[in-house]
Write a structure and sequence with these properties.
heterodimer; A: alpha/beta; six-stranded mixed sheet; four-stranded parallel sheet; 10 strands; globular; B: alpha+beta; Alpha-Beta Plaits; two-stranded antiparallel sheet; 2 helices
C-alpha cells in the first residue's frame, strides 16, 4: 500500500460558474478548506485561527440534535445516520468509548489519509465533541500500519492539544494491520480488545463494543463534518449536497484519470459526469467534455464496489442515497474510470483474486466461495471458457452473498455481478474468441500485496 | 422467527441439514444454506430448535428479530 499522500493540485484554479467541487484549499471546499496541500499538516494555531473554538450551545447534548438535524450519514461506506448511532450509544449503559476509524482499507481510496494528514485537528475536534456529548471516557484513533504520515500528523496534533489543554477526554492512537477487512467496525472493536482484527457477528458496537462498552465507531471524515456542524450549524451543512444526502463528500479518483489518487471534496449535487469531465486523461478530455466516453466503464465505491457503464451513471449525483438506488453505492467515495481500451473482465478477475486473499477465512462460504469465484473469473478473462462455465459462475454468486459475518463476500459478489452485466459484450467476445486485446493492456486498478498479519 | 447461522462458528458438519432438511441444505462447499422464510408453525420452530441444540459448533440460533 502506498504511504505517500497524493493530493490534488487544483488549488491554483479559480472556481468557475457552477463549480461545485474542489481540492485542498479550493474556495468551494469545507473539510479541505484553508491552506494548500503543499503546506502540509495544519497546526493547532492555524486551525483555531481559521475556525475558532466550538461555541457552547452545540457542545454536549446539543450536539446530538445538531447532528440529527444535519442528516449526516457515515462516510465509511454504509452511510448509516450518525445521530442514530450516537443515540444508541447514549442510551446504552456503561463507560463509553469513541473510536475514530481512520484505517482506510480500500487500496485505491485516499480520502481519509489525506484528511488525517492535512487536517488532523478537524477530525480530533469532531471526536472530542462526540466524546463530550456521550460522556465518553476515552477516544481511540485507529490507523493502518501503512499510514506513517497519518500517524505522524495525529501524534503531533494530539501533543499540541494536550499542551493547550484543549480536550477533556484523553486521545490514544492505535495502529492495526493493513488488511482489507480490518477496517470494518467490528474488526476494529476486536483489535482494540487485543484479538485479531477480524469482523465478528453480534450486537452493534454502539450498543456493545470494546469489552462490552458502548463504542461509537465513526469514520474520520464523518467526525470532521461533525466539527463543522458544531460550528456552523445543520442548516449550513445542508446547503451542500442533496436533501437525501446532505453535506459535501470526499471522493478519490482512480484508474484512467489524469491523476489517480486525487482527493476532491464534492458537493453532493455534483453529477459523476461533471466530476469526470474535470479529471479525464487528456486523450479522452475532448470526448468527456461533451459526454460519457463510449465503451468506458466506471468502478464506484471501491474494489468491493460495483461497475457501471459510464453513460448510465453520467447524470447521477454523487449522493449516497441516489447511488444506492441506482445499484452503484458511493461506498468509500472511490470513483474509478476504465477506458474503452481496458478489459473489465481482467480487472474484475484481479480485484476478485485480491478480495479472496483478503477474506479473514472465518466463514466457510466466503473462505471457499471467493477463491472459487476468483478462479472462475480469471478463467473467463484469460482463456476461452465454455458457456456452461459462465452459467456456473452466475449460479455461484447466488450461494455466497449474505452468508458472512461481515459484508465482505457480498461486496465481492456485487463486483462480479455488476461486471457480468456491464461487460456483457466482452463476455460474449471472450466466449467466441478468447481473451480480447484489452486483456493484454496494462493494469488499471492495481492491488497491493496482502499482509500476513491480523494483529 | 427464523433460523440463522453464525458462519464464523460453522464448520460444515451438516447435522442441521439432516435434522431440518425442509429448510436447510448444503451448498457446494458443504456449508448450510438456510431458507430465510419465517418459521411460521409450532412444529417448524420445534424442529429448528432441535437443530440448534444438535449443532456441535453452537453455530445456529433461532432469532425473533432481523439480524443487525
Amino acid at each position: 500500500m502506498t504511504t505517500s499522500v497524493v493530493v490534488d493540485r487544483l488549488d491554483e484554479r479559480r472556481p468557475g460558474p457552477g463549480d461545485t467541487f474542489g481540492g485542498v484549499g479550493h474556495p468551494g471546499a469545507r473539510l479541505l478548506a484553508g491552506r494548500p496541500a503543499y503546506d502540509g499538516t495544519e497546526t493547532l494555531a492555524q486551525h483555531l485561527d481559521r475556525l475558532g473554538i466550538v461555541p457552547p450551545p452545540r457542545r454536549g447534548a446539543g450536539l446530538v440534535d445538531a447532528v440529527h438535524d444535519s442528516g449526516l450519514g457515515g462516510r465509511g461506506g454504509a452511510g448509516f445516520p450518525m445521530a442514530e448511532k450516537m443515540e444508541a450509544a447514549a442510551r446504552a449503559p456503561g463507560p463509553r468509548l469513541v473510536v475514530v476509524n481512520a484505517s482506510e482499507s480500500e487500496p485505491a481510496s485516499h480520502k481519509d489519509r489525506v484528511l488525517v494528514h492535512l487536517r488532523p485537528h478537524l477530525v480530533l475536534d469532531g471526536a472530542a465533541l462526540a466524546a463530550e456529548a456521550l460522556s465518553a471516557d476515552e477516544i481511540v484513533v485507529q490507523l493502518h500500519r501503512g499510514d506513517p504520515a497519518g500517524y505522524g500528523a495525529l501524534s503531533a496534533a494530539i501533543a499540541e492539544r494536550t499542551a493547550a489543554r484543549l480536550d477533556r477526554v484523553p486521545v490514544h492512537l492505535s495502529v492495526g494491520p493493513d488488511r482489507f477487512v480490518a477496517g470494518e467496525s467490528s474488526a476494529v472493536v476486536a483489535f482494540l480488545e487485543g484479538r485479531p482484527a477480524q469482523p465478528r457477528p453480534g450486537p452493534r458496537a454502539a450498543v456493545s463494543g470494546v469489552h462490552g462498552c458502548p463504542t461509537l465507531v465513526q469514520n474520520a471524515e464523518t467526525l470532521a463534518h461533525v466539527a463543522l456542524i458544531a460550528r456552523f450549524g445543520p442548516d449550513w451543512f445542508r446547503a451542500a449536497g442533496t436533501p437525501g444526502s446532505p453535506g459535501s463528500v470526499l471522493v478519490t479518483l482512480a484508474g484512467d484519470v489524469e491523476r489517480p489518487g486525487t482527493v476532491l471534496e464534492v458537493w453532493g449535487a455534483t453529477t459523476i459526469g461533471r466530476l469526470l469531465v474535470s479529471c479525464s486523461r487528456s486523450g479522452h478530455a475532448t470526448i468527456a467534455e461533451i459526454g460519457p466516453v463510449p465503451g468506458a466503464a466506471v468502478l464506484m465505491g471501491g474494489y468491493a464496489g460495483a461497475w457501471a457503464d459510464m453513460a448510465r451513471v453520467w447524470e447521477l449525483p454523487l449522493a449516497h442515497d441516489e447511488l444506492c438506488r441506482a445499484g452503484v453505492p458511493l461506498g468509500c467515495g472511490l470513483v474509478g474510470v476504465l477506458s474503452p481500451d481496458g478489459c473489465g473482465l481482467v480487472e474484475t478477475a484481479r480485484l476478485l483474486t485480491y478480495l479472496a486473499t483478503e477474506s479473514s477465512g472465518q466463514c466457510g462460504p466466503c473462505a471457499f466461495g471467493l477463491p472459487d469465484l476468483a478462479a472462475q473469473a480469471t478463467a473467463l478473462a484469460t482463456t476461452r471458457v465454455s458457456r456452461s462455465a459462465v452459467r456456473r459462475l452466475y449460479h455461484r454468486t447466488a450461494s455466497i452473498a449474505g452468508r458472512g459475518a461481515c459484508s465482505h463476500p457480498d461486496g465481492a459478489v456485487r463486483l462480479l455481478e455488476s461486471a457480468l452485466e456491464t461487460f456483457a459484450g466482452d463476455v460474449r467476445y471472450h466466449l467466441r474468441h478468447g481473451p480480447c486485446a484489452g486483456a493484454r493492456n496494462g493494469v488499471t486498478f492495481p492491488v497491493p500485496r496482502s499482509s500476513e498479519e491480523w494483529r | 422467527m427464523r433460523l440463522v447461522v453464525d458462519f464464523t462458528r460453522c464448520r460444515g458438519h451438516g447435522i442441521c441439514t439432516v435434522l431440518f432438511a425442509e429448510r436447510a441444505e448444503l451448498d457446494e462447499w458443504g456449508f448450510p444454506v438456510i431458507d430465510p422464510a419465517d418459521l411460521d408453525s409450532a412444529p417448524l420452530v420445534r424442529r429448528a430448535r432441535r437443530a440448534v441444540v444438535a449443532c456441535p459448533r453452537g453455530a445456529l440460533s433461532v432469532e425473533t428479530s432481523e439480524p443487525r
